[in-house]
């Protein structure tokens, strides 16, 4: 049995203080999918300028404390802002994963980070982590569509589906971070 889920985004809360959340979804074989939502609005200065404000520090502290309490098979963090920055559009040749979030994700074995679109395409893999960037109107890909995420005990599959219902891209993250595209 596979668990399917859809993550919806709202641009109306971007930059405002909204509630973070931890959602646990029971899966077959006594496994649990944990979805951690974090408002990345307060992290903007840190992500773009490297400056740590009090609100940035509070968000990072909350995220780290929340992930420290998780101990389940699948951990997905959802945020508004992309954490992968490319110097060239649609390439992963020169990429930057924003710190200290990268370190936190590695420390607590996060399987994937899902956000709105960025300049690196829809999927980027870094070590044991998958960064999934949701298509948004006006992004550089000119592709309208949505993601379908399926989680099984051994892998998480993400399908990028266009408006004609065709799968145009696929990414798979295996348990313990082994991924394939």
Describe the structure.
- There is one protein chain.
- The protein is an alpha+beta fold and 181 residues long.
- It has a single domain, classed as Purple Acid Phosphatase, chain A, domain 2.
- 15% of the residues lie in helices and 38% in strands.
- A 6-stranded mixed β-sheet has the order 2-3-4-7-9-8, with helices on one face. It has a 5-stranded antiparallel β-sheet with strand order 1-10-11-12-13, with no helix packed on it.
- The longest helix is centred in the middle third of the chain and has 15 residues, at 54-68.
TL;DR?
With 181 residues, this protein is of the alpha+beta class.
Based on secondary structure, the structural category is alpha+beta
Widest sheet: strand ordering: 2-3-4-7-9-8
Write down how many β-strands occur, each being a DSSP E stretch of 2 or more residues. 13
Largest sheet: 6 strands, mixed
| Percentage of residues in helical conformation | 10-25%
Topology diagram in text:
Layout: E1 3-5, E2 21-27, E3 31-37, H1 44-49, H2 54-68, E4 74-78, E5 84-86, E6 95-97, H3 101-107, E7 112-116, E8 123-126, E9 129-134, E10 145-151, E11 155-162, E12 167-174, E13 179-180
Parallel strand pairs: 3-4, 4-7, 7-9
Antiparallel strand pairs: 1-10, 2-3, 5-6, 8-9, 10-11, 11-12, 12-13
């Amino acid at each position: 049995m596979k668990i399917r889920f859809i993550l919806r985004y709202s641009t109306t809360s971007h930059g405002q203080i909204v509630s973070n959340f931890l959602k646990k979804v029971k899966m077959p074989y006594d496994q649990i999918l944990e979805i951690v939502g974090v408002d990345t609005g307060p992290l903007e200065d840190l992500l773009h300028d490297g400056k740590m404000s009090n609100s940035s520090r509070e968000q990072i502290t909350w995220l780290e404390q929340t992930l420290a309490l998780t101990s389940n098979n699948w951990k997905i963090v959802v945020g508004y802002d992309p954490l992968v920055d490319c110097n060239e559009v649609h390439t992963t040749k020169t990429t930057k994963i924003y710190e200290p979030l990268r370190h936190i994700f590695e420390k607590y074995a996060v399987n994937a980070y899902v956000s709105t679109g960025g300049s690196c395409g829809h999927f980027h893999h870094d070590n044991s982590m998958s960064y999934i960037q949701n298509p948004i109107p006006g992004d550089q890909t000119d592709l309208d569509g949505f993601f379908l995420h399926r989680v099984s005990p051994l892998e998480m599959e993400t399908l990028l589906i266009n408006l004609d219902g065709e799968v145009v891209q696929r990414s798979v993250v295996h348990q313990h971070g082994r991924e394939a595209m």
